[in-house]
Specification:
single chain, 223 residues, alpha/beta, Arc Repressor Mutant, subunit A, Rossmann fold, 2 domains, seven-stranded mixed β-sheet, 8 helices, 9 strands, 46% helix, globular, binds nicotinamide-adenine-dinucleotide, transcription regulation, repressor
């Protein structure tokens, strides 16, 4: 199975944020202990899967009682590496880039957007919430001075390859790519593409599947 950070399976890494959200809610409600069965029921998983996922964080449960909520929260945050907020820059301060730069919730997940860059002079020296927008020509100087490793790419698709190459030349090690373009970058660079259209395609396929089943079962009822 494909493994990611610290040798933990990628599907587990993808599930950990869901556990975290749930556990943070439990903590706010004053809940001190939680069982794998409760977590499994809430998230539609099997308890054995939940136990396996949690074991990757190094936390052990107590028989018949479960896990200490605050310990589990801390362990998940540590496992995900979110206890060390990572600075990132946004490149492309348009509709999407502005929304991402203004979103303060990323900090809860250890991502701090510290600056944005754009080629449009109308955007320079403006602010997206607490995030300043600078000319793209200043990006190297900024990265060198602030030791940033991650770039959030929100430029038009036809600019994505060239801009990402520039960012890699400036020393960025990871690109979170929102542009609909497969980037060709050196192997040492981590590239993660996020595409709402892909999520929507999955959603609509699931809806179609459900509707077909419904139509089929109403046909069966008619007989
Ligand atoms: N992944 C997703 O789910 C998703 C959702 C929406 C949009 N997008 C993509 O995100 C990108 C941005 O979309 P938008 O709606 O914000 O577009 P937009 O036109 O509002 O913003 C693009 C911004 O990039 C700037 N720009 C252009 N070339 C640049 C360069 N070389 N360097 C720096 N800045 C540059 C422009 O001046 C502009 O401010 C597009 O590629 C779009 O397809 C992806």
């Amino acid at each position: 199975m494909e493994t990611g950070y610290r040798g933990i399976p990628i599907p587990t890494i993808k599930r950990l944020p869901s556990y975290l959200r749930l556990l943070q809610g439990y903590r706010e409600q004053g809940m001190e202990m939680v069982s794998a069965t409760t977590l499994a029921e809430e998230l539609g998983l099997k308890p054995i899967q939940v136990r396996k996922d949690i074991s990757c964080t190094g936390i052990e449960g107590k028989p018949k009682v479960g896990f200490v909520v605050v310990n589990l929260i801390e362990a998940i945050i540590h496992t995900l590496g979110w206890d060390n907020a990572t600075d990132a820059i946004v490149v492309g301060a348009g509709h999407l880039g502005s929304a991402l730069a203004r979103y303060e919730g990323f900090e809860r997940y250890g991502l701090k957007i510290v600056a944005a860059f754009d080629v449009d002079p109308n955007k320079w020296d403006t602010w997206l919430g607490d995030v300043p927008v600078f000319p793209l020509s200043k990006v190297k100087e900024y990265i060198d001075r602030n030791h940033v490793n991650i770039g959030v790419l929100a430029v038009p698709a036809d600019q994505a390859q060239e801009t990402s190459e520039l960012l890699v030349e400036c020393g960025l090690l990871a690109i979170w790519n929102f542009a609909p373009k497969d980037l060709r970058l050196p192997d040492h660079v981590v590239v993660q593409r996020t595409d709402l259209a892909t999520s929507f395609a999955v959603l609509s396929a699931k809806v179609r599947q459900k509707m077909n089943k419904k139509e089929l079962s109403s046909e069966v009822d008619d007989w």
